[in-house]
């Protein structure tokens, strides 16, 4: 039987097509890859080493200064090393037995009670410098200081360290104060005038090229320099105390200096905070009846059996908040709002957030698409209307994220201490 030549030809065409089809995918290829990895650090500041003042020799006058002014005995004060426990135990506020010893001293003269507490404390999760070890050192973002049964002329001091527990240096940017009634809606009388505080912070400096400590914040001086009237201060034991009434609207931001503490474990740098609480002696009888020799017609009930609390928030930014290099580098050429890109010339269209670039087609149906997010060439199928849709490899939104203005949003944390003071604490 004669074989059909047509069938033979068709079969050959099919075979050739398969061969050509196979060779179309036989080119050699290669690829390059860039992988970018990033992690974020922690940002945090904590109180540690809370105690009654003083706890270390370099922060005292070797006993010649005071920890408590109470009017008892010939000296009328307790020496500044009376409660000193040093580095023996950072988690207790005083040398064992010293608080009981003070109460024995005060027996028959006053019934003052006091405490300093790290609220909601947890153990450190990392070593801080050479002193504070993880898993054994208590830390917290809030300190509560309590003094009960105060009286005019009484003053007491406390101290704490402030450490950086994160991976980013922290900057103390502001301090906010708020005083309010201790017992909610009950009256605090005139305690906002009778009770005062003193606050001093300095930065401990252990860097090899520096010595000594650097003053960071002085409350009384900050307010005086900002125009606060002298009537808002009173003095006990040689220290200026600021009446609580002067603190609610206090602006101290400009007074902060040496306020950056570096991150552990690279540095031992930290802040020491010293806080004093006092009740105005008011011998002249401005708020009380004063003295028998010069008795004033004031109501002592306004300052007796009352309670008040002060909250002080220390507000922290990451160290680079507000900073920006500004000038840019070669990468500005890829910015979403750039008007010119290397190798593509100028753009003829503008992007308004559409993923389709705008273009102007010719009557022949060909056009060049433009994009402000990247280079693109529009292709056309020869539409008789002359319009086409350009393809774009630029930003699908056409807007620039730009450069951050110094991470002004940044990371921030707050640390605070609260105090409860008065003639009698209401529970």
Automatic annotation (TrEMBL):
Residue stretches of biased makeup (Gly residues): 416-427
Extent of Low complexity compositional bias: 338-370, 377-415
Region forming the signal peptide: 1-26
Basic and acidic residues bias spans: 292-303
Disordered as annotated region, ranges: 284-304, 327-427
Keywords, comma-separated and alphabetical: Signal
Protein name: Signal peptide protein, YSIRK family
